[in-house]
Amino acid sequence: MDPVGAPLLRLGTRGSALALAQSGMVARQLAELAAGSGDERVPGVELVRIKTEGDVNQGPLAQIGGTGVFVGAVRTALADGRVDVVVHSYKDLPTAPADGIVVGAVPVREDPADVLCARDGLTVAGLPTGARVGTGSPRRSAQLRALRPDVEVVPVRGNVDTRLRLVTDGHLDAVVLAASGLARLDRSAAITERLRPEDMLPACGQGALAVECRTVDRQTAWYAGALNALDDPATRAAADAERSLLAAVEAGCVAPVGAHATVDGATLRLTAAVFSADGQEQVRGSVTGPLVDAVALGVELAEDLLTRGAGRLLAAPR
Ligand SMILES: NCc1[nH]cc(CCC(=O)O)c1CC(=O)O
What we know:
Layout: E1 8-13, H1 17-36, E2 44-49, H2 53-56, H3 68-79, E3 85-89, E4 101-105, E5 114-118, E6 132-134, H4 138-147, E7 152-154, H5 160-168, E8 174-178, H6 179-184, E9 193-194, E10 209-214, H7 224-230, H8 233-250, E11 257-264, E12 267-275, E13 282-290, H9 294-307
Parallel strand pairs: 1-2, 1-3, 6-7, 6-8
Antiparallel strand pairs: 3-10, 4-10, 5-8, 5-9, 11-12, 12-13
This protein binds the ligand NCc1[nH]cc(CCC(=O)O)c1CC(=O)O.
The ligand NCc1[nH]cc(CCC(=O)O)c1CC(=O)O binds near residues 177, 181 and 206.
Keywords: Porphyrin biosynthesis, Transferase
Cofactor: dipyrromethane
EC number: 2.5.1.61
């Protein structure tokens, strides 16, 4: 309760700069929407910081349990009732559902594209032979090597600022990052080239946020109206399609996957590809259908890719 007795919406967040930027945006939107919903009780939104193992342990993500380590602690705080909503980068959210938790809102998506942040304004085509480009993502690595087999992909980890500094310090010629993360951190000036989704298919859900709440509260909590108002059905459908594809492909292969859904009125178009680690092979496809069939469209395209040999790409040399 805040001093005048109105309920405080407790929004759980990690402490990283990106998480705080995203949570802060959602907090402001939720406060405005709740206030605008005609509800007498104008709520405050309180940010509650949650420390996760991924923040403490800087070892390679794959060794400490993948991006799931960030999500787990935040979801536990939600399930335990310490907070009411949590905000995730949708692309970091595992596809398996969590008990008692639902995605209460999917706000309007930012640009889902990946971007190059290079020294001296360089583009992918302009990088010198043997240029050192940082990314920790097998998906970005494979597609970068498909575009430029001669560049050296350097594995990197750490937050967005750490990665940008590798370029400004002269350790790397460039890094590949998400346009959305840079925009939210007000670092878009570092972008030297926006990579078209045709050339660099984004991660499933990239650029979108997932606002999770407890399932029991989704319809009935005093903030349910604000969650409804925050939800963008087009973004939700795009994320649903990309993530159902990912879940269905993951069941059949562990090769890098990229996907991009676009929405035009009531129609959704999903393009996706699975890559060999070296980027020299790929299986790509598209599917178009009604927005309301987003999940089924993702499964349909996944089955198509698997039928055409997506699973086999796992065996390709690294
Ligand atoms: N893996 C870290 C991460 N998780 C989400 C984003 C960007 C924000 C988004 O996808 O919406 C980033 C940084 C990046 O990939 O450059």
